[in-house]
């Protein structure tokens, strides 16, 4: 959102006669600098593995997950977790032991419920490639499951692509330098015009 509004301002600057205003270049420099500082601070706070925000997010998510997750539920949390677990090859929020205090049940044919130790999405891909009965067996015994938590998997994925975001910050720094050079030239022209008028 921040980047979209920033690029919209730059497009407006390039498209209209706003750039002929004497205060436009300094404002563009200040805006770019402010956006860069905000982005760097957000990245440092939210992407630090030891930050309080990260620990608080994990605890809040784990509590919500423990209270609301169900295997055959179509609620947003359950579906999102299942998709993330399959995509990331992970189990639980922190690790596979997140399910110890939960009552996971699977409804079989004839309305018979079977207690599971972990959701079927925690089972490895190799289990899914075999017979469907193996998946239920895996979830019941908690064997051949992923051990890494989904929060950790998602966190590492975000850190990996944070490097691409760093490229955007470098482009903005270059933009800020170009605006500074243009402003220096504009100030130099104003001074020359002013000295010619004084003579």
Automatic annotation (TrEMBL):
The chain crosses the membrane at residues 164-183. It holds the Pfam family Tetraspanin. Keywords: Membrane, Transmembrane, Transmembrane helix. GO terms for cellular component: membrane. It is a multi-pass membrane protein. It is found in: Membrane. The keyword Transmembrane applies. It comes from the Eukaryota. This is Uncharacterized protein.
